[in-house]
Structure prediction request, 224 residues.
Amino acid sequence: MADGETPYIVEDRRMLSRVKGGGIKITHTIEPGERTSGCLTCCYAPDGCPMLACLPCVDLPEYIVNAMKASRYIYVRENSLEWNNPWMQPAKGRCCGHSCCHRVVMDDITVMHFDDVHFDDVRNDTRPCNESLTFCCGGNGEQVQIESTFCSCCVRGKGNRVCIPVCCPQSCCPWLVKNEVWVEDAEIAAEIIREAREGALERLGIQSIRMIERDEKDERRKHS
Prediction:
């Protein structure tokens, strides 16, 4: 076990290293976006009848709304970005394993290390007229987009999916190399993430290593 006061270095992937062996330091905590229901919503669905939330004037049961709010977090660590975007599903029950009357909140935690090959672009991608649309239709705050683009029209896809139109949302295309992070203030959050990533790359010498490797490849192409 590594000494908690000494650095923990992973030579083959330096971004997994940390300043102290005993733990990974959280450098910033970003305030997650607040889920807001639309102006037509006038009440919560009863705890024992969550399916009523499909009506435009009824929100999810209050215990679900509170549990989802309490579960959201965004941590900027010394070598990665971590966030939880919880979702809801039926609780355990006797109807094919599910309950018809109760719901539970499930964690959906994502961790992206700053040396991820797809950690290219971090930007504020909040929809236009967000405040007005949130008031009318509901929303989750402002949006920070982390994606890997190679032209103005397409985003890289996972696996053997070559490219996908940039207009496709992550909720409809889970194979996109794109992550949507809902925050309270997207401009500040994007700046914090960019600075943390650049600082980590510089501190671990990854940026300079990549530049050397790129120069070597260019040199080989010239002589080939």
